[in-house]
Amino acid sequence: MEDHLDIFRQVLDRQVVDSNHFACGKVDDVEIEGGKTHRVVALLIGNGAASDRLPALPRAISRRLFGDRVVRVPWSDVDVITEEIKLRRSAIELGLDERTGFAHRLVSKLPRSWKK
Length: 116
Hints:
Blueprint: H1 7-10, E1 15-17, E2 23-26, E3 29-33, E4 39-45, H2 47-51, H3 56-66, E5 71-74, E6 78-81, E7 85-87, H4 91-94, H5 102-108
Parallel strand pairs: 1-7
Antiparallel strand pairs: 1-2, 3-4, 4-5, 6-7
């Protein structure tokens, strides 16, 4: 029996954690290579990929507020898929480290905010 992966149930919108178990976003889209058989090539993480699922006006607003950044994580960097998707490398190596972004800088200035 062949191994099958239900992309919608097991991958899309799942929390992604890096090799250090640092939460680094959710899977917003999946890049698939076609042909006679289809195979997953990469996970797409970021508001650019997430907003692509929205109608035109909400998509434009979302991109204006949150940007259109998309990080492409090669499928070869996926280690394990359970309730979350664990990666083989760190968020920093993959460009997923949110601790350097605008939102983190803003929130970390608030009183009693959690800082790492």
